[in-house]
Amino acid sequence: MSAPVATSSGQLPGLRRRIASMAYEGLLLIGVLSVTFMLPHLAIGMAFGIIFPGWVLITHVFVVLSAYFIWYWHHGGQTLAMQTWKIQLSTPGGEQPPLARLVLRYVLAWPSIVYFGVGVLWALFDRDHQFLHDRLAGTRIVFKRD
What we know:
Blueprint: E1 5-7, E2 10-12, H1 15-48, H2 54-74, H3 80-84, E3 87-90, H4 99-114, H5 118-121, H6 132-137, E4 140-143
Antiparallel strand pairs: 1-2, 3-4
Helix pairs in contact: 1-2, 2-4
């Protein structure tokens, strides 16, 4: 696939490492969504016989995942999977991204991934092999600074 790319601020992780981190993140999110989404809806459904409409369920998932990702990115620049793969989120200049950029990255990641992974495939053609949502949000995935 792709080897690490050298930049003025060091080397960027290769595409394989970032996709492996995304796959591991998917496994971790099964647990997060089980506790914060599935269990509450099962309890409400069993206790009150209520089934929420689809838009409520999708909104709930969107909010839960936004809290997970934005909180972790804002507090250290890494989710649990990113910690495992020793990568973190930063600006192109190497600083911690401001909260507004983190929210923008999260919102842009949805269509980037949901529409057949076009934003991930973008990395094959990007000069720094960055995902489309990172390019648009002004963020990038870098190796963890010690």
